[in-house]
Amino acid sequence: MPDASPAKWHRAHTTWFFETFLLSPNLADYSVFDQDFGYLFNSYYNAVGARHPRPKRGLLTRPDCETVARYRAHVDAAMEKLITNSDEETWNSIAALVTLGLNHEQQHQELLVMDMLHGFSCNTLEPSYESPSPPPSIAAPDLTWTKFEGGLQDIGHDAAGDANSFSFDNESPRHQVNLLPFQIANRLVTNAEWMAFMDDGGYTRPEYWLADGWAYAQQEEWQAPLYWRHDDKNTWTAFGLRGRQAINPDTPVCHVSFYEADAYANWAGKRLPTEYEWETAASTLPLEVNLLSKGSPRTLPAIHEPGLQQMFGDVWEHTSSPYLPYPRFKVASGAVGEYNGKFMANQMVLRGGSCITPENHIRPTYRNFFYPHQRWMFAGLRVADDV
């Protein structure tokens, strides 16, 4: 798939980031591991130079995995030297970029699992990442609503109030938005609810779909979420990190695009929340997450407790908000300014984190973004409505 990259490319690219933006400019005696790696493992930094085409990363038979491991060890040792030997002035000048590099690597930890799952799904043997195990047998609670009065709400990372915490530049500046009263579902949309959408002709009724979404669904012959299929008994199964298993009706639907999520919300007589509504709701909750780092790389059913659930760490939640800069956003100078700003067009915002997102990489202000047709990320939805 053109969007996916091999595991060794992710490992080499995150290493290249430290070598290119920190070691080469700041460590006087640093020796570049391999001059060709700048071309092979640059992702999208035009200011740094030419790069290997993304759709052809899967054809990189060399360097092999052992060489990539030596590359990482070489850069790790040099980074330790840079950090250890930096005086206060040098450290103050590079600390923010070191932190960005670490968070960048966390992003690729999740991308690596996404890409690996897609690659496994293309193999007729359907290998599994985790040992197969039965899904939890917990019935999802009924869908209920939490209401919010609206009004002026503070949105985005509070750099002044929380200067020691990390955020990406697209989470700032903090600003106010004026929200109308709204309500948001207590939990994510389940597989059972998605099956009801399918059974009612959700993939065959254009009245629920955006025009571009309908065209894409017809072109790609979508009939169900990615990785779903009918087995010999005409029942639905889904391929996941534990291989192919029967679909648990009570877990959140996963691997659906924005186009599909929007069509479902229209079918249900509701809508997707805006990213501002989602952040307003999420900011009222403790950061309790379902995460890979806690040994549970799978979506889980909501539990029978009052209030909002599953806001963090099951699936990235589609919103109705286009990925645009916040008011007074300014692109950073230099090559790292290409990190987020140049992608602020034609994509949609997702919030909340997934079950494969590193734990300390999740926060209420985090803005993920994908093109509206993409499905290989761990993405689902919850519905919202006006009050």
Kindly report the spatial arrangement of strands forming the biggest sheet: 10-9-8-11
Question: Biggest β-sheet: count, sense, barrel?
Answer: 4 strands, mixed
What would the principal axes of the Cα set say about the shape? globular
CATH topology of the largest domain: paralog of FGE (formylglycine-generating enzyme)
- First-last Cα distance: 42 Å
CATH superfamily of the largest domain: paralog of FGE (formylglycine-generating enzyme)
Number of domains: 2
Residue share in helices?
25-40%
Q: Characteristics of this structure?
A:
387 residues, alpha+beta, paralog of FGE (formylglycine-generating enzyme), 8 helices
What would you note in describing this structure?
The chain is of the alpha+beta class and 387 residues long. The mean pLDDT is 94. It has 2 domains: 7-121, no CATH class; 145-386, paralog of FGE (formylglycine-generating enzyme). It has helices spanning 7-26, 37-41, 65-85, 88-121, 191-199, 211-220, 258-267, 275-282; strands at 145-148, 151-155, 175-179, 182-185, 228-230, 236-240, 243-246, 316-322, 348-351, 368-370, 379-380, 384-386.
